[in-house]
Every structure is written in C-alpha cells, then in structure tokens.
Amino acid sequence: MLSDYQRYRLYEILPGLSIWLTLVLGILFSFIFPLAVIYAIIIFDVYWVLRTAYFSFYLIMSWLRFRRAIKIDWLVRLKKEFQNWEQKKNIIFLPLANEGYEVVKETLNALINSTYPANKMYVVLSGEARKQANWDQVQTQVKINFTGKFADILYYTHPDNLIDEIPGKGSNIHNAEKEFKKYADARGWNYRDIIISVFDVDTIVHPQYFAHLNYMYCLHPHPERSSFQPITLYNNNLWESPSVLRVMAFGTSFWMFFSLARLDSLVTFSSHSMSFQAAIDCGGHAKDIVSEDSRIFFQCWFRYSGNYEVTPLYIPVSMDTVRDDSWWKSLKNLYLQQRRWAWGTENIAYLLWQFRKHPEISRFKKMSILFHEWEGKWSWAVVAILLTVLGRLPLWVAGNEVRNSALFFNTPHILENLMSTATLGLFLSATISLLIMPARPESHPRYKYIFMLLQWILVPVSLMLFSSVPCIDAMTHLMLGKYLGFNISTKKRAV
Question: Is 71 exposed, middle or buried (0-12, 13-18, 19+ CB in 10 A)?
C-alpha cells in the first residue's frame, strides 16, 4: 500500500517516464525492428502533417478574430449594452522583483492610455522584501509620477522566507491577494464585481483590453466561473532581440492564437483575468509551485466540480523577450524560461491526485483534461526529436535485408514530401509574424525585414535546443524529485 507521499511521487514520475520510454524504445527498436519503426515513423509524419493543417486552420481563424476584435470600440459597446458596467472594479496585480522603474512606468502609462477610464482602475504593485532597495526606489518614483491618475495605487511588500512558499511570482501574488482582500472587505465590495488581472510587470496592454475584458465579463452568464485569457505577444523589445528569441517568441504567440480558438484545451497562461470571487473560492494563486498561472485554472476547475472554463479575449497584451546584454546570456535566459514553462508538467501530478477527491466529476471530463495536458507536454518534449533524429535513425542502422526492400528506398522520398507539405505551416507562421510585429524603430534599417523572414530557417534548431531539450530537462528533474525553483527571467530593452 503506497503512502500519500509515494503515490504523489509516482504521479510526478509518470510524465518524465513516458518521455524517456518514447526516446529509449525508439532508439532500441530502430536497431532491433527497423522495418516496424520505419512504418511507425511514416504514420507519425502523416499524423504530424494533418496536425499542422489542423494548427494552421485554427491559427488563421484566431488571426481573423484578432483583426476584427482590435477594430471594435469596446467601451462604446460596453456602455451601450450594460447599464451597470461601472459597478465592476478592475484590479491590476503587478508583481515585481528585479524590474526597475522604467519598466513599471511603461506598464502604467499603457494602462492610462487605455480606452477604459484609468480612474476606475486599481493598481496593486507588489514588491519583494528580498529586493527592498529596488522596491523602495520603484515606490518612490511611482508615487511622484502616478499618484492621482488611477482610482488607487496599492503597495504591498511580499515578506521573505515565509513558511511553505517558493519565492517567485506565485507567492508574491498570493500574498498580494490576501492583503487586497482586506482592502475590499473594508469597503464592502462584492467579490463578484471585482475583476482581477494578474500581469507580469512588463505587460503592455492593448488600449482596448480592459474595455473588451469588461464587456466579455458582463456578457458571460456566470463570469465567476471563467477566467479570461488574452493573446500574449512577446514583442516589446522584439526588434532588439536575437533571431532565435524572436522565433521562439512568435512560436509562443502562435500557440496562444491556436489555443484560444480551440476551447477544449484552453487553460490560463501568463497574463490573465478572472473574478476575485473565483480566486477566493479556490484559495488564490498557489504560493508553493512554479506554474501558478496555469494551476489557478485547475484549482477553480476542481473547486467548481469541473464547471469552470476559459473565455478567450482576442485582444493582445505585449511582454518582453528574455533579451540580455549579450547574445549568449539571452540564449541562456531563453533556455531557463522554456524550462520554467515546461515545469508546468507538475500540473499532471496535481490532476491525478485531485481526481480521486472529486468523484462528482465525470470520468470523460477527467480523462479529457488529463490527455490535453499530458499530450501537450509529451509533444513539446519529443516531436522535434522524432521528426529530425529518430525519424532517420532506422534508415541509418538498418541491415541489408531491410535496405533491399522497396519501403527502404521509398521512405526518404515519402518523408521528404511529408515534411515539405508540413513546411507550408512554417510559411504561414512567417507571414503572420510580419503582420503582428510592432512598427519598425527608426534605428533599424528597412532591409532588416529580410532577416525577419530568413530567421525562420532556424526553427528546426531552435525547437530542438530551446524547446525539446529544456522540456526534457524540466520533466526529468521532476521525475527525479529534483525540484526547480522560480527563476526570474532577465528582460532588457534597448536604451
């Protein structure tokens, strides 16, 4: 009989084990049963071509919705269709650690430039006690330059070395939510009328974001049973970033475009908004994990017995790439950021653990949400390797009996044709990337657009080194019980 600790550790081991079984058995069977592996690779490549077409369809659909959404004056529609819109209280949580005043200033200016009135926004700046000098400086500058421009600005300090916490964004937000609850209770606010938005401090909101958010919140029949997820664009410092960072940034944005249109697997990621009622009911953003942005969705999903969803917002928020002072430091930051995101694998163990506690949720719902979470992490880790390395291995090591078969001679041509077809998805991504890029700064020559197209030839390498490898790294750490803390991504803009 397994103890609770042993059972949970088993759940943490399983995702990493599925990755390593795929890789090890793929290599082993390439030597023992090369013909069977060749058939399997062809089938997998056909599947991947179909999946690329599937991805492209939803990417285009989401792109069209995005273009339509940013052209609508959502504040006019909000005022026209919902007479009680002013009852809603918008609270923007901005946790920070190393970020300086210049980053905070641009974020606050973007809020002020929103079509939604800034005097109806409450900004919560939450700094770290372990970074007290920087936090004190930021507070001083914000008070000098932004006092009176919002409904209120609240300053909370996240204490250091609290029990049962992992230092990071999740624990910072958790503490800020507890402090803000006191503020809301003192004013007798209804939690259902409070919309909280949890952003990275470098998040630049689109001018229409809060008007659109409030419109969708008022439109939803049960807004306390939904999170609201915008499109995330990593383009604040895109022009100054190395090409590999740009490709990976676009890849993340395209994944968000795809996910927003395909609601069956949509969970919260990075910047998101939700009812304060839901946050309170589920215990707030987790303080003891790395992936608090996606975990909050699962917490609410279980709290409401599977009756919780994510409403897509086709209005973007923009953040920074992990650019640093040097090319090498930037690549290191990218690897660590991807590994931190892949640490979201910890949600699989959480799901398996909670399933036993919620018999009221149907088995179909449980298996569906588990499949999407697990398959997503599995694909993230192994697909690039399967397509580039393991897909060719049986052809390299096959014996003479296999080499003399018609299948062996035709397989390279089949694989080449399949991958050429899949490349059409790459051309689509390159085209859309040009359409969502920020305006070219005057300091950059026009011919740099050519490099913005040529950078897409780096996709195979970037997917291998800065997607598959950090994902395998994270899942292996979890598998071995070597838990990762929250690494703070360095993000620098050109001065």
Answer: exposed
Topology at the third CATH level for domain 84-326? Spore Coat Polysaccharide Biosynthesis Protein SpsA; Chain A (3.90.550)
Per-residue model confidence as pLDDT tens digits over 200-245: 999 999 999 999 999 999 999 999 999 999 999 988 888 888 888 8
Question: Which residues are CB-neighbours of 32 under 8 A, at least 6 positions away?
Answer: none
Question: How does pLDDT run across 443-475, given as a tens digit for each residue?
Answer: 888 878 787 877 878 888 888 888 999 999 999
**Partners of 233 in the beta sheet?**
318
- Tokens 């041509």 identify what position? 413
- 460 closest CA partner among 410, 365, 386, 403: 386
pLDDT in tens, 97-145: 989 999 999 999 999 999 999 999 999 999 999 999 999 999 999 999 9
> What string of DSSP letters covers 369-427?
HHHHHHHHHHHHHHHHHIIIIITTHHHHH--HHHHTSHHHHHHHHHHHHHHHHHHHHHH
Residues 282, 201, 93, 162, CA torsion sign = positive
Q: What is the pTM of this model?
A: 0.91
Tokens representing residue 441 in the block? 């700064």
- How far apart, in Å, are the Cα atoms of 126 and each of 46, 151, 230, 281, 328? 49, 17, 22, 22, 31
Domain residue limits, the chain: 84-326
| DSSP one-letter code for 201 | T
- Which H or E run contains 153? strand 152-158
**Most confident residue range from 269-273, 415-419, 448-452:** 269-273
**Cα distance between residue 75 and residue 115, in whole Å:** 7
Among 248, 250, 257, 253, which Cα is nearest to 336's?
248
